[in-house]
Amino acid sequence: xxxxxxxxxxxxxxxxxxxxxxxxxxxxxxxxxxxxxxxxxxxxxxxxxxxxxxxxxxxxxxxxxxxxxxxxxxxxxxxxxxxxxxxxxxxxxxxxxxxxxxxxxxxxx
Length: 109
Hints:
By secondary structure, the chain is of the alpha+beta class. Helices cover 25% and strands 36% of the residues. The chain has two helices and five strands; from the N terminus they run H-E-H-E-E-E-E. Strand 4 (80-88) and strand 5 form a beta hairpin. The longest helix is centred in the first third of the chain and has 19 residues, at 2-20. The radius of gyration is 20 Å and the shape is elongated.
């Protein structure tokens, strides 16, 4: 009986350490929509149709920004990150954007 309790404690501690070594922040988004963004033409409604509700919003240099991000960190492997930041002009069209990723499948040849 004591061996069983000891084994359970070790298992519980192991699971806690494993879970503590991983963290995910943000939401997954459809990266295949990134090439469809056209500066000066793509409207907020188009962005919402492509990617859904932004994970984070803000203001940069007086311009509204929307961020779509997914960040997965682990003690046991390299971080996996993707983020798309869009800046809108006063008319609600994309003025500029940046897309960054550490996922190999997102790299252009």
